[in-house]
Amino acid sequence: MSQQGETDRRQEDEWWRQLYGQPDPGGREPGDTLDDRYSSALSALGEEADGGGTVPRQTAPQDTAPPAAPGDGRYAGADPDTAPRGRTGTGPDEDDAGPPDTLRLRRPAPPPATAPRPWQYQGPPHPQAAPEPASEPPGLPPGWAPAEPAFEPLSSEAPHEPPAPAAPAAGSAPTVLPGPTLTEVAYIGDGPPTYDPEPTAWPAADPDGLDDLVPDTELDGARYGLLTVRTASVRGDSARYRGEPRRDAVLTARFGGGDDALLLIAVATGPRTSDTAHRAARDACTWMATAVGRSQARLSEDIRASRRGSLKSGLHRLTDRCYGRLRARGEDLGLDPAEYSATLRCLLLPADPDCRIRLFFGVGDGGLYRIRGGEWQDLDPWRPDERAETEDSPAVRFRFRASVARSGDTLLLCSGGLAGPLRGEPALAALLTQRWGAAGPPGLPAFLGDTQTRVKGYADDRTAVAVWDA
Question: What percent of the chain has pLDDT over 70?
Fold first, then answer.
């Protein structure tokens, strides 16, 4: 044995040459078959031919030859990426694949060494093998520490105990109702609505008209100066169940920059009986926004100068042009004017914090409300006898209202799917007054949950736009 404990390399190389050398040209020797060679190889390595138990290995003669020098042909033809690194020819070749096109035989594992061998990794142990710190309680994974309450000083004398929650005062009641979550939508009234609260079926898709697909829900928000805006548009329970597209459309746009910017929020609803309702609603919002954006400079000037008459007539003309394009588009599609139409309601808000004018304009059904001083106010410019007009045949009657906001006001613009339950179930208006009044603007998920507070008998699409004045 050498100092490295390996067998005689020359004797082993001779054995390999005899085993896989060229056969005698005169013919095959008796017993020179693949099975015989396999048995001979196993015997040379100290294993039985039948794959059973092992036999004691023969003691190899003492290795007196000098170590193999680089370039002696030992690794000739070997892949440089798989050849051992930093080897000088001493030590067992445990990963040696042998000559090409030969049967690779696995050698027995070497006995455990008392000292690390030169080719073994001697770095730090695997992190999972490190013992757990004595300070950590049992049961926690290594490297984990018990959670500590925020903003509490750590004490080295005794484990920290969180303070017990204070007992509620007798007779106290929450002043704000708990908000509905996205997974458990609350309802108002004496019973739950008929349909499930979550989407059921998607609308059928046309491979050549994928641009017509409408998402189930849209959510948006922004803050400019004193204004905070939240918008949400949700497919109704009935449309979710029947696999119909959302007929409501909403568009938010900012024209200009700085204090001269104008914020436009447009809400449209297509007719219930039309298969192209979602297209008409989207076109109405887009074409209205295009007209407002091109007239942004003149509109901003009239708003700053409080020219109510000019604003009403100008926005009326822009709305008429929008509906003219809808009628022309319907004719191109071979549809009746009532089939390719939509109700349209818009808010136009200046971003200038010194200008508190809020403009509403549009055509058709919907709602316009305000929360001021904890009270719910209906600002819709419709007269009671006009509300008999339905969205299936919206009368092209222009609606306009200009108001001056106060600090703390909340303005709400909504489609008919939300305006209906707000008028029919006063408890819903009371709930939203609590949520959106003194409490201020909620986050986007909370706002979406509030708009999904359902009422039995109302299953249409819902679109809500809320604006808070700081």
Answer: 57
Interatomic CA distance for residues 263 and 257, integer angstroms: 10
On whether the CB atoms of residues 462 and 235 are closer than 8 A, the answer is: no
- The model's pTM: 0.61
Residue 248 has φ and ψ, to the nearest 5°, of -80, 145
How far is residue 23 from each of residues 26, 33, 448, measured CA to CA in Å? 8, 11, 85
d(CA 395, CA 386): 10
- Structural domains in the chain, sorted by start: 216-469 (3.60.40.10)
Proportion of the chain in helix, strand, coil states, percent, rounded to 5: 25, 20, 55
Distance (Å) of CA 49 to CA 58, 135, 230: 16, 56, 80
Q: CA-to-CA distance for 17 and 102, rounded, in angstroms? A: 12
- pLDDT tens-digit profile of 314-339? 999 999 999 999 999 999 999 998 89
Listed in order, strand segments (DSSP E) in 70-190 are 187-188
Query: Do residues 296 and 256 touch, judged by C-beta distance below 8 A?
Result: yes
Give the total residue count for the chain: 470
Look at residues 180, 190, 264 and name the one whose alpha carbon lies nearest to residue 222. Answer: 264
Burial classification of residue 145, based on how many CB atoms lie within 10 Å of its CB (0-12 exposed, 13-18 middle, 19 or more buried): exposed
What is the per-residue pLDDT for 90?
42
Distance CA 31, CA 49 (A): 14
Per the DSSP assignment, residues forming a β-bridge with 218 are 233
195-239 confidence digits (pLDDT tens): 888 899 999 999 998 988 999 999 999 999 999 999 999 999 999
Dihedral angle over CA of 326, 332, 338, 341, nearest 10: -30
